[in-house]
TrEMBL record:
<keyword id="KW-1133">Transmembrane helix</keyword>
<keyword id="KW-0812">Transmembrane</keyword>
<dbReference type="InterPro" id="IPR025339">
    <property type="entry name" value="DUF4245"/>
</dbReference>
<keyword id="KW-0472">Membrane</keyword>
<feature type="transmembrane region" description="Helical">
    <location>
        <begin position="39"/>
        <end position="58"/>
    </location>
</feature>
<dbReference type="Pfam" id="PF14030">
    <property type="entry name" value="DUF4245"/>
</dbReference>
<protein>
    <submittedName>
        <fullName>DUF4245 family protein</fullName>
    </submittedName>
</protein>
């Protein structure tokens, strides 16, 4: 017995063969689209899972600590290369860490410079000890943003010009001591008080004297 054609409610009549084919094609398209979306979501979740595994499963470790800088050894190397006496402060390691040591320059003067930071991480202090090779008389003033000396202090018989500075104008430098040593100029400066600077100056007394004697 022949089956009566199914009446489609939206049409109020049986579908034509073309309409049936179109309906089935649209259903297939919607199904494939939903499958593609599910596949995309699954791929994203799988990728995220791999990233999480890499982040949490791969050993991170810690970067190796930087080798401490031996100021005396670096100074000796520069002295040999330059053919001149080079100062080497002896700062207490419990108070100061060496951040950098090498030759720097302001364009006209080359200077052997050691940069120290306070060993206590809560401290903001820093120090620089610089030996300006054959420095002109204005070199220290240029390094200190044009500041003028307040007066002098004497450390182990050596007279140093003393500077009190406005930190807002001098890159946080608050004080400095300056003296000549033969053809060179020794500059001790930073974010520190004068007693700290004079204590630092006392560590280079013998070397300043040696530089002066060499030039006589």
């Amino acid at each position: 017995m022949a089956q009566n054609p199914r009446i489609v409610a939206e049409l109020g009549r049986p579908e034509t063969p073309d309409e049936t084919a179109a309906r089935k094609a649209e259903s297939s398209r919607i199904y494939r689209s939903s499958q593609n979306t599910r596949n995309l979501v699954a791929a994203l979740l799988a990728t995220l899972a791999v990233v999480v595994v890499i982040i949490f499963a791969v050993p991170r470790g810690t970067p190796p600590e930087r080798e401490p800088i031996d100021v005396a050894a670096v100074a000796a190397g520069i002295a040999g290369a330059e053919g001149r006496t080079v100062i080497a402060p002896e700062m207490p390691e419990k108070d100061w860490l060496v951040n950098r040591a090498g030759i720097e320059g302001d364009g006209s003067v080359r200077a052997w410079t050691i940069v120290y930071a306070a060993a206590d991480e809560d401290e903001r202090s820093f120090l620089r000890v610089a030996q300006g090779f054959d420095a002109d008389p204005a070199w220290a003033a240029r390094m200190l943003s044009g500041a003028s000396a307040e007066d002098t202090v004497t450390v182990d018989g050596i007279v140093w010009d003393r500077y009190e500075l406005d930190a807002s104008r001098t890159a946080n430098i608050t004080a400095a001591l300056v003296t000549t040593a033969g053809p060179d100029t020794i500059l001790i400066y930073g974010a520190a008080d004068i007693p700290t600077l004079t204590e630092t100056a006392s560590t280079v007394t013998d070397q300043v004297i040696a530089l002066r004697e060499e030039s006589e």
